[in-house]
Amino acid sequence: MTRYRLGGVLLLLAGLYFVGEAWAATGWEGRPYRWTIDAISELGVPETRYAGGDAFASTRHAVMNVTFVATGVRVLLAGLVLAPFVPRRARRTVLALAVAYGLGTVVVGLFPTGMPSTRADVHGVGAVLTILGGSLLLLALAVSLSGTYRRLALVTAALGLLSLAGSACGMLGIGGFGLVERIAVYSVLVWQVLAGIAVLLGRPRADPPG
Fold first, then answer.
1. pLDDT (tens digit per residue) in 168-210
2. Which candidate, 61, 151, 158, places its Cα nearest to that of 112?
């Protein structure tokens, strides 16, 4: 398998994130989990919590957190594998944003939100790196691809802007937080799946020299 194809496989594996999140959600106990209101990270909280005297918990919090960590590691590997194929003028920016996105996602999984507050604070930093890093990564990729792959660049830009809009709505309190957060997060993941398909079904490219 060439380096280019390996990168495509790593991108395509982004689809497994949705499997992990859905599986984690089936372990929710207590009040119903509200997909349009509750944050994704609620599925990773290891503690039992209480609201109005009623207990609720994510019994499969480990599944969600492993999914976060695995997603982050996969992104880091994909970035390193595919970096040589990014136009040189944008390579450092794209790689830096991919690292921020990947590391942020790993941090989100290693430091679930909840209690103590210090753990939640670290989680928050990871979440910012993940969500904003992912949005900006797509926009940087759109610019770098615009000269040679215009259709892919347009799709990349559209999903990047959609992700950024979701982030902005979350910060401004517009709409249900769970919904707008998922718009921000899912847009980047969907792009990875589409890009992986494009790489695997497209014209083969030789590995860069050296």
1. 999 999 999 999 999 999 999 999 999 999 999 977 666 665 5
2. 61
| Residue entry with tokens 């430091």 | 111
- Asked if 107 contacts 69 with a C-beta cutoff of 8 angstroms, the reply is no
pTM of the model: 0.94
Beta bridge partners of 29: 57
Residue 11 has φ and ψ, to the nearest 5°, of -70, -45
Q: Give residues with Cβ within 8 angstroms of 186, minimum separation 6.
A: none
Rounded-to-integer distance, Cα 142 and Cα 152, Å? 8
The widest CA-to-CA distance across the chain, in whole angstroms, is 63
C-beta of residue 142 within 8 angstroms of C-beta of residue 160: yes
- Hey, where are the domains in the chain? 3-201
